[in-house]
Amino acid sequence: MAETLIAAIGASLLLYLLFGGADFGAGILELVVGPRAQPYVDRALSPVWETNHVWLILAVVLTFVGFPAAYVAVSTYLHVPLSLALLGIVARGVAFTFRHYDPAPPSTRRWYTRVFKASSVLTPFFLGVVFAGIAEGRMHERLEEGFLSVFVSPWLSPLAAAVGLFTCALCVFLAASLLAAERGPRAGGQLPYLRVARGAHLAAISLGGLVFAVAWHSHVAFAHRFLDSPVALGCMGIATALIPVVAWSFGRGAVLWLRLAVAAQVATIVAGFGVAQLPVLVAFQAGESITYVDAAAPATTLRLLLMALGTGAVLIGPGVVYLMRVYKSEG
Amino acid sequence: MASTLAFHIVFACVGMSLPWFMVVARWRELVTGDPIYARLSEAWSKGVAIFFAVGAVSGTVLSFQLGLLWPGFMLHAGPVIGMPFSLEGTAFFVEAIALGLFLYGRDRLRPRVHLACGVMVGVAGMASGILVIAANGWMNSPSGFTVGPEGFTDIDPVAAMLNDAWGVEALHMVLAALASTGFAAAGVHAMRLRARPQLRLHAVGMRIALMFGVVAALLQPLSGDLSAKSVAERQPLKLAAMESHFVTESGAGLWVGGIPDMKERTVNYGVQIPYALSFLAYADPHAEVRGLADFPEDEWPPVLVCHLAFQLMVMMGVGMAGVGVLFLGLRWKKPSWVEHPRFLAVVVAATPMGFIAVEAGWVVTEVGRQPWIIYGVMRTEEALTPMPGLWIPLAISLTVYVTLSALALAVFRRQVRAVEEGEPDHG
């Protein structure tokens, strides 16, 4: 049962990365491309964004109900980057909503846009930092060593910075692939994002490499587990094999293929990391860790949680499909 | 945490109530064919969208803050009381989808389907609120587990969710949400109507919103009575603190107003209604009501805060019920006076009453439970994060929320203006 729940948490994080990530990436894109991107960004985001943080909430709720010890460890020792990411989520969400709905004078709207762009970079960066902190194994429980050692050093590392940047690049890449469809080649002219998207693709690939290099260099146990796991390596192999497919779809403007390939790439990357990390949920110093078996809530709770999840999926799945159909029906 | 919750509760109230206003307006539009209802429903649905978005964001923050600030609580409580949270997630999802359909489907869906989507938004919004209250009810009336040396065992999430406090608390909160949002929305419409009496939109809007607010405000005393009886049975100490009732006695009196004097253990400057407390708490004027002195002093909640917050909540409730009686009376006898400037002034004055009552009531239930975070099981200090320098994140979140509230208010004003711009001068 715990395994099913882990899969559900993984799936919900993946969906958050795909949808929420595209959303963050759109903000970063606007930062890179400039104001002419704004109408496309607004159009592409407005129906989706109301639902996208829900994936994060879902993952968080499943974690604190199903694996409370892991949730508590993360929120205690990674308090600082989590709070910074949250601050980013608040600022971003509010700035975007207000920009969309507030009939404000241009000077105010420019402020919304600035906040929107800045927080679009900071939020995924710090979320990446949090995930690096969970995997890297720098946390410890010796409270007497003081604030810096307990609450800062677990996430202040080259690896965390690399993962943060990698997350941002993934987001831009996702957003560019999504937005490419908003204005297909038939609409005339070169897509403003095509160049950026290629750039983001390259950046994501090289930053992914950097993450591995840093992890290897700082002797993170995670990197070794990754290379020892055939499944994780297989996932990485698929992600790599998809690179030419993505490049080809960019060149041809084959939007559907592009989206599928991009989603598959991100999914395999996430799956690879997940497989390498398990059974560890949260890594501590000196090889100590919280595994999903240690952290699991009693069986009654897990059973009820899965039942609730199933009910939810039955209600929500068709709803999302219907919403998308109605939204796209405008033609 | 408190600042996030204080902020979130306002959004939650609006999120539970405003969709219903928008649905009623849309329904009136379908029944009467009067385009003014279409415009009203559209204006309100924009409000719903803004509040939903900001509420979703502050909800995301809350789901993390539980762990950021109260890891001790979450470690033990998560498996027990996580159930309503996961169901709430479902309700939230459904609400998001239905709202998306309502916002983007006005001209694309058949009117009945569109209306049904609006109803779904309202039902799901209400359900989320009620489910979250289950968690708060559990903190007041913990059930569904046994405390042993190894933490909480024999966990039964269903029993935890169906705790004794849930029903009364949820009823009280639903009515409070409707009353506060109804009065606030009616107040805004009344204010604009005073400035521009020719705008029919505001007159229609005020009537619908006020109707919701008034019905809820008139029902609220009944639910308050149920809550009082439930608290008297489960948390006699909280009742004693709310009432500044120091000494156990039969035929206890009820203080109206007054400031508790902790040294002398009495209440100054208040008026006491004889036998009223016994009667309200146990439906028997001679029943014995336990006083604070019966309990060890280190388990007392802050009496002054509870007492004042409770008095404030009741005062606001009575005020709203008064406006409600006046409104119903006018509608019945002198319908044209509903738009009389004097009555409008009364409605404007009542704008914040509901939300003041909500915040005060929340203070009563939270502060009244101190020093416990889980009543009788876990003390608040045991649950707090070990991180030092907590005032920094607290100061930051307070600043953020004050700024956000100011911004939201400004946006709201501009929205109202923008809606008015599009209105014909005589509808």
- The separation of the N and C termini of chain A measures 44 Å
Number of helices of chain B: 14
- Count of distinct structural domains of chain B: 1
CATH topology of chain A: Formate dehydrogenase/DMSO reductase fold
Largest sheet, strands/sense/barrel of chain A: 2 strands, antiparallel
- Terminal Cα separation of chain B, in Å? 46 Å
Tell the overall outline of chain B: globular
Estimated structural class of chain B: mainly alpha
CATH A-level architecture of chain A: Up-down Bundle
What is the helix/strand order of chain A?
A: HHHHHHHHHHHEEHH
Number of strands of chain A: 2
Quaternary assembly? heterodimer
Unreliably modeled segments of chain B: none
CATH class of chain A: Mainly Alpha
Strand content of chain A: under 5%
What does this structure look like?
- The complex is a heterodimer of chains A (331) and B (427).
- Chain A is an all-alpha fold.
- Chain A has a single domain, classed as Formate dehydrogenase/DMSO reductase fold, CATH 1.20.1630.
- Chain A contains 13 helices and two strands; from the N terminus they run αααααααααααββαα.
- Chain A has helices at 2-33, 38-66, 68-77, 79-101, 106-136, 147-152, 158-182, 192-217, 221-228, 230-252, 255-277, 292-295, 299-328, and strands spanning 280-283, 289-291.
- Chain A has a two-stranded antiparallel ribbon.
- With 427 residues, chain B is mainly α.
- Chain B has one domain.
- Chain B has helices at residues 2-32, 35-69, 71-104, 111-140, 157-161, 166-195, 200-234, 236-243, 276-282, 303-333, 341-349, 353-367, 380-383, 391-421, and strands spanning 146-148, 151-153, 249-250, 254-256, 259-261, 266-268, 271-273, 288-289, 372-374, 378-379.
- A two-stranded antiparallel sheet of chain B has the order 1-2.
- In chain B, helix 6 packs across helix 11 and helix 8 packs across helix 10.
- The mean pLDDT of chain B is 83.
- Classes of the chains: A mainly alpha (331), B mainly alpha (427).
